[in-house]
Amino acid sequence: MTDDRKPMIECRGVHKHYGDYHALRGIDLTIRAGEFFSLLGPSGCGKTTLLRTIAGFEDISEGAILIDQKHMEEVPANKRPTNMVFQSYAIFPHLTVAQNVAFGLRRDPRGKAEKAALVEEALAMVGLRGYGNRAAHALSGGQRQRVALARALILKPKVLLLDEPLSALDRKMREQMQVELIKLQRQVGITFVLVTHDQEEALVMSDRIAVMFEGEIAQLDGPEALYARPASRRVADFIGVMNFLPAHILGESDGVATVEAPGLGVVELPARQISRANPDDEGPTIGFRPETMTLVGPNQAHSQPRETNATIDEVVYYGDMTYYDLRLDGAAAIDGKAHTVRISMRNVFGRDVQEVGTRTRLAWSPGSLVLFR
Amino acid sequence: MKGQGRGLQAYALLYLLFLYAPIILLPLFAFNSGTIIAFPLQGFTTDWFSQMWANATLRTALTNSLIIAVSAAILATCLGIFAARASTRFEFPGKGGMMGFILLPMVLPEIIVAMSLLVVLLGAGVQLSILTVIVGHVLICMPYAIAILTTAFSSLDKSLEEAAYDLGETRWSAFRLVTLPLVMPGIISSLLISFTISLDEFIIAFFLAGNQPTLPTYIFSQLRFPKQIPMIMALGTVLVALSIVLLALGEYFRRRGNARMGGNPTGGFL
Fold first, then answer.
1. To the nearest whole percent, how much of chain A has pLDDT over 70?
2. Per-residue pLDDT for B253 more than 80?
3. Who contacts A31 (Cβ-Cβ below 8 Å, separation ≥6)?
4. B152–A contact, CB cutoff 8 A
5. Strand A159-163 relative to strand A82-85, pairing
6. Interatomic CA distance for residues A169 and B171, integer angstroms
7. Cα–chain-centroid distance for residue B24?
8. In whole angstroms, how far apart are CA B53 and each of A11, B43, B47, B223, B242?
9. N or C: which end of chain A has fewer CB within 10 A?
10. CB contact under 8 A, A77 and B165
């Protein structure tokens, strides 16, 4: 959908070594102009290192980084068309809000009045109109975040780099800032590159997401594709919750695999539901998300093609949602292990929360399954 | 229950009396017209102060001491800034050992430092003067300067300088515009401590000054003459007053700096 936009950042075979530690292992990546792009991964996966090499704070050991089709190897951070919002915000505590925002304009030849107007405009953009004369150290976390954004955006960079910008905020504030960041990005049209370890944050905000493990990109996709068709078990496990059941492959023809899984019986899965990147070497595995299956009462009708009887093992109540851990009938007969799966149900009006030990039926469709092999 | 703290209270009072009574005696006798340091006090006089003011050797000693203390404070603080920034911002081989050796003079007996310096300087054929005293004082002030400045630098967020660099400043201007103002309370503390240490330092000044008097060596030499003692009392009074002013000034700047940065103390020592 965005393929026609020109590339803004290109990483070509980027490696980074710190002594013996291999932090980035051959990153190939193209981020397009105007994209909201996220680097997602657990801590130590190299996502922040990659962001810092794009910003110019770290040299790369091998490969090339291009921004707006220009090689960046010889360009220091203070000359790159990128600006950064730091995890700690790095607001200068000895300056006022306006002085902070105007900091990047110090070398700008424009006049004082013109700069003041730019500062006021930038502050208005992040919802801090009239805060210019406040002392920066007296601001709340969310306000600091906004000042950091205004300070970076006032320079009209080609790329805005955001290093875990929301991790220091409380949940409510974080959700609010996520929406504001999306709006802001649409408004200014600048390419945003966000580093985060929070999969939900990445899903909410990004056009595309690169999931990184151990200095490598494990999958690069849009949020929906990433969630619905994870390329490997590890990606699936990192993004949201996924149930895994050991699978037995009975046969395969024309890309369609016939698979048997404990409790689910025999299903046929087309090629688009099969992920062949399973480096974890755990053998074939069937995966499905908790919300893709439904608990139905004894006489309740449903429209799903398949159903399985199960016993409720555990109930976790979340207010709007309830998680049920289920023992599927017949699952233990396969290999003697009790395979519990987790199902989530919205607590819509009229639907009672079930009790532990209740016999129930699980309605599902083979279309929600993913096979990792 | 109520009387329980009495003993400790009395102890604390006695302790403070022991600490400060001798210092309170200084101004008492400085304004006393009697020539012997003994009670009862005689009359009020400011003669000792005028005598002190007229004393040319004393003035030389004072000038020497001020030159030495100001130079040593500035040099030790500048060198301290380099060391503190390097040790808080960068990792390099042998860092721990290096910092340890720089801080060692803090616990080394001063007489050993003074003696070995004297031997080396004489061996190298260097003329003893206030310059050599400055060198010695920088050596003993450095550990204190570094201790104070390291605290100031380590409480700084590393991203601050990076942010300034990212916003188009050079490495140096980022340091000057962001780091320097934020560690200023630490720098002022370091200057004051170094100045104070140098001003009243005796052993190194005694060994390395050649025939130049400094304030402590001059005072020591005058104590042999009972006639001079009231004047020394007057000098002591002036020094105590100056110390109080200096301390108050330092504390004022530290608090103002803290208030401006939202009560985030960066290496105040006083």
1. 96
2. no
3. A7, A8, A9, A10, A37, A159, A191, A193, A208
4. no
5. parallel
6. 30
7. 21
8. 75, 21, 10, 18, 16
9. N
10. yes
Residue B99 belongs to domain with CATH number: 1.10.3720.10
Q: Would you say residue B3 lies in a domain?
A: no
- Taking an 8 Å cut-off on Cβ atoms, the answer to whether B163 and A104 are in contact is no
User: What is the domain extent for residue A171?
Assistant: 7-228
Contact state of A87 with B264 under an 8 Å Cβ cutoff: no
Determine phi and psi for B269, rounding to 5 degrees: -120, -25
Taking only residues 50 to 79 of chain A, the set having a beta carbon closer than 8 angstroms to any beta carbon of chain B reads: 55, 57, 77-79
| Pair A66, A40 in one domain | yes
Q: What is the domain count for chain A? A: 2
CB A176 within 8 Å of CB A146: no
Question: CB contact, 8 Å: A90 with chain B?
Answer: yes
pLDDT in tens, B90-104: 888 888 898 888 888
Listed in sequence order, the residues at least 6 apart from B148 whose beta carbon sits closer than 8 Å to its beta carbon are B80, B186, B189, B190, B193, B267, B269
A266 and A356 share one domain? yes
- Taking residues B53-70, what's their average pLDDT? 89
Indicate the number of domains in chain B. 1
Range of the domain at B133: 26-33+43-260
Q: Tell me what ipTM this predicted complex has.
A: 0.84
State the CB neighbour count (10 A cutoff) for residue B172: 8
